[in-house]
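ingest -> validate -> predict -> emit
validate: passed (alphabet ok, no gaps, 220 aa)
predict: started
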Amino acid sequence: MELTTETLSQRLILTAVMPFDDGSAIDKLLTFTDSCHGVAFLPSFIHLAKTSISSENRGKLIGLVGYPTGGVSTKTKVNEVRDMVYERAGAFHVVANTGYILSGNWDDIHCELQAVQHAASQHPVSVFMEAAYLSDHQIMRLVNLCADLGINNIGTNTGWLPLNPDVDQVLRIKEMVHSRMGIIVAGVVNFDQAAQYLKSGADYIIIRQQHAEAILAQLA
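emit:
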């Protein structure tokens, strides 16, 4: 696939989730909703985003659940989803509990994801792991679980930890997914990374608005 401004924009999910992102950062991010795949916000900013986004773009409003560690309780994740459903979020990115995965607590992971998906009330749900810290066996088991539950996308990482999956690992995840769901990669900061991840099998890229602007400028 040849990358153009249009084709790349359609694969970008823009975020403003750093501790220093204020209301003005949210407002600026929302000016890009017409051209990108989606915009992702922490629960506390969903209401502000909802009131500023046009009704036709409401489906692009993505709520972040259990972000960024995934270590909150299932009850907390479910309540976050319910609150953001009420605020008209159009989709959800849920961070899986990496500690549970590493500990082999698969029954707990299954129950949590099932509860979150039920709370999402037919809205698309994407599940995020930290692939660089997991074995292929653990990733495969999570991918299969997500596929069985009808999860829409699997995220390879949140972009918040020192280690992120490399291109080879994304290629392996692509083989594991086998077209059963989309793949989302986070932590991209430049054009070369974006191009490599998309070529290796990523369907969407999570990126800060400033980095997205710089990347798109290279294609203009």
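The chain has ten helices and eight strands.
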